[in-house]
Amino acid sequence: MTDAQTPIDFEHALAALESQVQRLESGDLPLEEALKAFEEGVTLTRQCQQSLDAAEQKVQLLLAKRDGSLDTQVFTARDES
């Protein structure tokens, strides 16, 4: 279980969230455990969203021109196969 006061990195938060989702989807948890897992999932989701928001802000800063406008570029994913 994660401590809401201790931020964890995005990858660990996402892995923990996936674990909680699997536990909830199993349908085998007693109600109290399911509620705890759901609560932790909400916390992890918020942490992931904050990490993504911070990353987006960094990218925008890196792409910002000196005049304040953004230098937008088309992003194409590499084919990793």
TrEMBL record:
GO terms for biological process: DNA catabolic process. Its EC number is 3.1.11.6. Signal peptide: none annotated. Coiled coil: none annotated. GO terms for molecular function: exodeoxyribonuclease VII activity. Keywords: Cytoplasm, Exonuclease, Hydrolase, Nuclease. It is an enzyme of class 3 (hydrolase). The keyword Nuclease applies. Pfam families: Exonuc_VII_S. One of its GO terms (cellular component) is exodeoxyribonuclease VII complex. InterPro entries: Exonuc_VII_S (IPR003761), Exonuc_VII_ssu_sf (IPR037004). The keyword Nuclease applies. It is found in: Cytoplasm. It catalyses: Exonucleolytic cleavage in either 5'- to 3'- or 3'- to 5'-direction to yield nucleoside 5'-phosphates. It comes from the Bacteria. HAMAP family: Exonuc_7_S. Belongs to the XseB family. Heterooligomer composed of large and small subunits. Bidirectionally degrades single-stranded DNA into large acid-insoluble oligonucleotides, which are then degraded further into small acid-soluble oligonucleotides. This is Exodeoxyribonuclease 7 small subunit. It comes from Paraperlucidibaca baekdonensis.
